[in-house]
Hints:
Elements (H helix, E strand, L loop, with lengths): L13 E6 L3 E9 L7 E9 L2 H14 L3 E5 L5 H10 L3 E5 L14 H13 L11 H33 L4 H4 L6 H12 L4 H5 L10 H7 L6 H31 L4 H8 L6 H11 L9 H7 L8 E2 L2 E2 L9 H15 L4 H13 L1 H21 L12 H5 L2 H16 L15
Parallel strand pairs: 1-4, 4-5
Antiparallel strand pairs: 1-2, 2-3, 6-7
Amino acid sequence: MEETDEAVDLVERVCALDIGKAALTVCIRVPHDDKPGHRRQEVREHATTTRSLLELAARLHAAGVTLVAMEATSDYWKPAFYLLEAEGFTCWLLNARHVKNVPGRPKTDKLDAVWLAKVVERGMCRPSFVPPAPIRQLRDLTRYRRTLIRERTREKQRVEKLLEDAQIKLSSVASDIFGVSGRHMLQAMIAGQRDPKVLAQLARASMRAKLRQLEEALAGHFDDHHGFLCQMMLERIDDLSAKIQELTAQIDQQAAPFAAQVAQLDAVTGIGGVCAQELIAELGVDMAVFPTAAHLVAWAKFAPQANTSAGKAKTAATGRGNPWLAATLGEIAVTAGRSNTFLGERYRRIARRRGKQRALVAVGNSVLTIVWHLLADPEARYCDLGPDFYQSHSNRQRQERNLIRQLQQLTGKTVTLTPQPTTPAA
Length: 426
């Protein structure tokens, strides 16, 4: 029999919380004073107000509790977690799926708290990643900025739908209807200008090469009703843009202590300053939380899952991880896919064979691996392998077999290779 590396340690003094919005159920389990090997437990309810939580902290200190565990129930876990963490306790946030009660048993808040305490004291679960306070504050800012950007995008889409309703095909001619030329035309239409030729003359720079197309696109039935709605939408877009700029300034200030890490990540293809800040906000800068790069990739749900039954391998999805991190990685992968770099060639290579969605996940996997190595070593610097990496490291015989097989499938004929005759030297 082979030796395992899991340490079997029983947590002597543990507390488990069954979290609710207004109240929580507390189960404290400690060793029995008179019976070795036995446990004593106490179950009570506490309100989630600050005063009640401070009373709970005093009780836990008196009982000598060292570990407090709770399920991630909506956002209700945050007040208890942050307060008890500040009081000096080791707090674990647990995924509810990992500590689910046994089916068939009665389910109450008291029984759930007792079950959670038993699972935690025996080391049968792992805590979820909760970053330190500075990273949490940065995460709040970056997530809200992304939320506002999404809201602004939705508002822009509403403007485009409004123009379609008015038979204005500006988006078919201009790649960005909210650029300088597009905004001038929209403001002119709101002000009452309806002549397509006059509106087309408001084009600037390269847009002036499309005057005829603009005249046709701007000939519709845009009236005062559309103008009223369009004005409100543009004001909403401008207000959101101002808030996004204000948030960005605050994020830059909050991320100042991590300037070195931001500079490290910024050097990676597809990762700009904004994405670097978002990666740090979601992952933190201490990679000791993830023993290896593979642990980070698996935690983010960007690693392929093994699903084998009866000796047969089956397809398995990677699972659903952090949606904010996934959005950032998707943005990075799309940007890298357009570049003439190793990551760009990796994206295109996989997209040709397995589709764009799998290519996004694969490039996200590579990006996370790079990020882990950069953040784990402050002296590490990113060096691109180049777009010809796969070609220079590919097996020529295997590539030859693949090309022959593809040609045979295409033509339905047998392909035989004949060595090219050598040309005698002059």
